[in-house]
Amino acid sequence: MTTTYVTEGKSSINWGRIFMWALLIVYLFITIFPFWWVLRTAWTTPSLVYTDAESLLPVGFTWNNFLRVLGFLSTDEAVAAGGSGQTINFFLFLRNSFIFASTIAVAQTFFSALAAYAFARLKFPLRDTIFTIYIAALMVPPIVTLIPNFILMRQLELLDTFVGMVAPFFFMTPFAVFFLRQFFLGVNHEIEEAAKMDNAGIFTIFWRIILPISRPPLVTLAIITFITAWNEYLWPLIVGKDESVRVLTVALGIFRSQTPQGAPDWSGLMAGTTLAIIPTIIIFMVVGRQVLDSIQFTGFK
Amino acid sequence: MSNIAIDAKSSRPNWLKPWLKTETMVAWLFLLPSLIGFIAFYAVPAVRGLMLSFTDGNLFRGPQGVGLENYQNLLQDDAFWNSLRVTMAYVLLNIPIQTLIAIVVAVMMDRVTKSTLVRGIILLPWLMPNVIVGLLWLWLLDPTLGLVNVGLESIGLDSIPFLGQTSTAIATIAGINIWRHMGYTALLIFAGIQTIPASVYEAGAIDGASESRMFFQITIPLLRPVLIFVLVTSVIGSFQIFDTVAITTQGGPIDATKVMNWLIYERAFVRFDLGYATTISIALFLILIVVSFAQMWIMRADESDL
Fold first, then answer.
1. Is B195 within the bounds of a domain?
2. What is the span of the domain harbouring residue B228?
3. Radius of gyration of chain A from Cα atoms?
4. What is the domain partition of chain A in residue ranges?
5. Using CA atoms, how far apart are residues B4 and A288, in angstroms rounded to an integer?
6. Considering CB atoms only, which of A130, A151, A253 is closest to B131?
7. Chain B interface, mutation test: which of A106, A143, A275, most B Cβ atoms within 10 Å?
8. Three-state SS at B223
């Protein structure tokens, strides 16, 4: 027989809980609905965007906006379909974003891990001084170093190249070194001791023991770095204008600025936006759990 | 014969010895890439930026020193003071509302559900680039066709040009960023709530404390380190807003949304006044230092309530 607890005088419906669920659902709705609205507009025939602006479902469901924006329709067809002739070379910019973000994610994680291990486990003069200087750099707003870095890239003639775009983030960020050092500090000493007794060199210990053990924080950092790089706007804007290296965020900005102020091509703009959202959603579905858990760590270490 | 070798080694100065150990050399090898990155892209640019702020920033014939002229101009520049005002208005609108919503959502999640799906949905806006969030809301808030205004008109109110009029523009930008960040902030606070041991609440319940009393007298005080971290970092981030403005209003209408980063960008890459632009960025740096320390002092960050 199951035991049921009945508290005296209280109703069996927990109104408090229902209220909180209701609030949460409203909140989730506010969070999700704008995304649906983008999709709904992207699927709507351009001319009908004006007539049925309040319809919750796509009006005159069509894939044309996507085809238009990707450049699969000729300009005449595109304008005839009701939109502007603007296209976005989506797959090129997607590729560029991917090159930019993944190069930074891999390189920064690796080089920061090297430095973090040195700070965490090795003894050498000036160790703590240098670490403090690295951390102090966290206080400097990015815009301060942005302009001189731009000038540097200009002088090295690395503007509009991947090398120039990736360079400032390639070797480290103070955050990455800090983040990994905290983890390495917490790794169990015994395994390293055992390896040292077997005469393993420092790099061997790092490569064969520490790295495999630290997979979770390493992967977490790589993911966070990837997402941050993927979402970058200002730096790629000033250093990567040329189409061959232009990333998705910059491309969207240009697409938007080409939209006539008077009568923007909303369905086209929303189709472009949808396309740009898809990669992020895919990434999140693949590594989402890790990102969510990582917010525990980066929160208040 | 071995005596000679020993003597040679022990005759080296004491300060040199730790440098010659294998461990030191390996450590420096490990450190080298990050040092290259740090010096080349953090340290040197920071110094260069400072130096540039004392010049006219002319890249063609080489920057020429102008002493404190840039700084003097800065103090008298209406555009600078306007951007400071706009940025502060933005921060004051953005952070309190965002943090409040985040606390409420975090507490609700703690009581109601810890499901990954819900947490994933909550995080979604934060994962999007600012550019996408800006475009999304540009459409929703459109004066004629945007759903928000269509909704207002359908209940008999006038449509509001949220991003198109000076009185509402910066508040709208703040609203857009609240939408983007409230979920992430809620998850941070939620993580903090998880660390509060259940025994503390049990003790409170035994003492007969009500839910709301426990919230204000147990949860909030114990969350103080998390809240301080969240507030300080989100204020610092909030001061540096750029992307959303770049995509939606480009500083307009007139200069109602000309936040400091936008002003710096415009001076540097539209007017090519690089010297003055770095001056403004140094000013922003100093302002951030003052704001951060003031915040931590106000919240007595070094004390704990445990």
1. yes
2. 78-298
3. 26
4. 15-80, 90-257
5. 64
6. A253
7. A143
8. coil
Cα separation, B27 vs B196, in Å, equals 39
Q: With contacts defined as CB-CB under 8 Å, which chain A residues touch B235?
A: none
Residue A72: Cβ within 10 Å count: 13
| Residue located via tokens 């704990």 | B304
What tokens were used for A264? 């923007």
**Counted domains in chain B:** 2
B20 and B165 part of one domain: no
The token pair at A99 is 């090159």
**Could you tell me if B39 and B149 lie in one domain?**
no
Q: How many CB pairs under 8 A join A and B?
A: 271
Residues B28 and B84 in one domain: no
**C-beta of residue B229 within 8 angstroms of C-beta of residue B237:** no
**Amino acid, single-letter form, for residue A55:** S
Q: What is the pTM of this model?
A: 0.87
Q: How many CB atoms lie within 10 A of CB A83?
A: 24
Judgement on whether residues B240 and B287 belong to the same structural domain of the protein? yes
CA distance B198 to chain A (A): 18
Model ipTM?
Answer: 0.86
Using CA atoms, how far residue A192 sits from A121, A178, A203, A232, in Å, is: 10, 21, 12, 38
Contacts of A152 in chain B (CB under 8 A): 40, 45
CATH code 3.10.20.30 for A90-257 = no
Nearest to A145 by CA among B251, B150, B44, B305: B44
For residue B11, being part of any structural domain is answered with: no
Is A145's CB within 8 Å of B30's CB? no
- Interface membership of B293 toward A (CB under 8 Å): no
**Segment holding B40, helix H or strand E:** none
Note whether residue B291 is domain-resident.
yes
CB contact under 8 A, B123 and A227: no
Nearest to A166 by CA among A236, A262, A72, A234: A236
Sequence letter at residue B291: V
Per residue of chain A (301 residues), what is the pLDDT tens digit?
444 444 444 455 678 788 888 999 999 999 999 999 999 999 998 888 878 777 888 888 889 889 888 888 777 776 766 666 677 788 899 999 999 999 999 999 999 999 999 999 888 889 999 999 998 888 899 999 999 999 999 999 999 999 999 999 999 999 999 989 988 888 888 888 888 888 888 888 888 888 888 888 899 899 989 999 999 999 999 999 999 999 999 999 998 888 766 677 888 889 989 998 998 899 888 888 887 877 764 443 3
Kindly report the CATH number assigned to the domain that includes residue B104: 1.10.3720.10
Domain-located, residue B69: no
Dihedral over alpha carbons B259, B260, B262, B268 (to 10 degrees): 160
> Is residue B36 located within the same domain as residue B154?
no
Asked if residue B189 lies in contact with residue B226, where contact means CB atoms within 8 angstroms, the answer is: yes
